[in-house]
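stage 2 :: seqdesign
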C-alpha cells in the first residue's frame, strides 16, 4: 500500500474543505478546489499534481477548478485533467458563474471536466486506487472517493460530523442520500476517516453510532 497524506485547505467564504492528497514521491491530487486558487497553490508548494477531482457541481467545490488547472498546466508543462463528478451534475457545473453571482463571489468559472465518472469505477493516482461511489441526494451526480488502502473517504457534502448533506434544493432527494450513505459509506470499517466537505473530519464508526440521521 502506498501511504497517502491528506491536507485540508478551507476555501471560499463558504469555508469548503479542499483536500490535497499527496505521497512520499512528491505527487498529489486536489479534490474539490472551490476557489481561492492562490491559497491552494501555496499549500501545494513543489508537489506535482496528477489530477483535479470533483465530488459534485456546487460552486464552492468546483468553481476554482478551471483556474487551478490553467495555473498547474503552465507550472508543470503537462496536462492536469479535471475528473468527475457524475454527468448528472453537468447542469450545475455549467451554472457556477450564476451561482457565484448570487453569493457575490468572484473568481469562479463554469467547469467542463476532462471526463465524468460513474459509480463503481476505480481511479488510479499516486500509486493508489480511489474507488468511485455514486451517492446522490445532495446533488444528482454527487460521488465520493474511497481510499480503502488508507481507510479514508472523501465524502464531499454527503456525510458530516453528526449530520448529512442538505437536500432542500429543487433537485435534492433526502431518501436517496440516506440510502446512498448506508449502502456505500456505512459498510466501511469503523476507523475509516471521513473527510467532509465542510467542518472537521469524523469516522464511519462515530457516525454509525451517533448520527441522528443514520441511527435505525
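stage 2 :: out
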Amino acid at each position: 500500500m502506498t501511504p497517502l497524506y491528506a491536507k485540508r485547505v478551507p476555501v471560499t467564504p463558504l469555508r469548503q474543505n479542499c483536500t490535497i492528497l499527496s505521497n512520499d514521491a512528491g505527487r498529489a491530487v486536489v479534490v474539490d478546489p472551490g476557489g481561492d486558487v492562490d491559497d491552494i497553490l501555496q499549500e501545494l508548494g513543489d508537489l506535482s499534481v496528477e489530477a483535479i477531482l470533483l465530488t459534485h457541481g456546487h460552486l464552492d467545490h468546483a468553481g476554482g477548478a478551471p483556474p487551478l488547472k490553467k495555473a498547474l498546466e503552465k507550472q508543470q508543462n503537462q496536462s492536469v485533467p479535471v475528473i468527475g463528478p457524475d454527468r448528472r451534475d453537468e447542469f450545475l457545473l455549467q451554472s457556477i458563474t450564476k451561482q457565484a453571482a448570487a453569493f457575490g463571489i468572484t473568481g469562479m468559472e463554469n467547469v467542463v471536466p476532462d471526463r465524468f465518472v460513474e459509480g463503481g469505477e476505480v481511479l488510479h493516482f499516486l500509486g493508489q486506487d480511489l474507488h468511485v461511489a455514486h451517492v446522490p441526494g445532495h446533488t444528482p451526480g454527487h460521488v465520493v472517493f474511497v481510499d480503502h488502502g488508507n481507510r479514508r473517504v472523501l465524502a464531499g457534502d454527503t456525510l458530516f460530523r453528526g449530520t448529512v448533506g442538505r437536500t432542500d434544493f429543487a433537485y435534492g432527494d433526502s431518501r436517496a442520500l440516506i440510502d446512498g450513505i448506508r449502502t456505500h459509506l456505512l459498510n466501511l470499517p469503523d476507523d475509516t476517516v471521513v473527510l467532509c466537505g465542510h467542518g472537521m473530519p469524523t469516522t464511519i464508526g462515530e457516525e454509525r453510532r451517533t448520527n441522528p440521521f443514520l441511527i435505525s
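stage 3 :: structure notes
- The two ends are 35 Å apart (CA to CA).
- The first strand starts at residue 5 and ends at 11.
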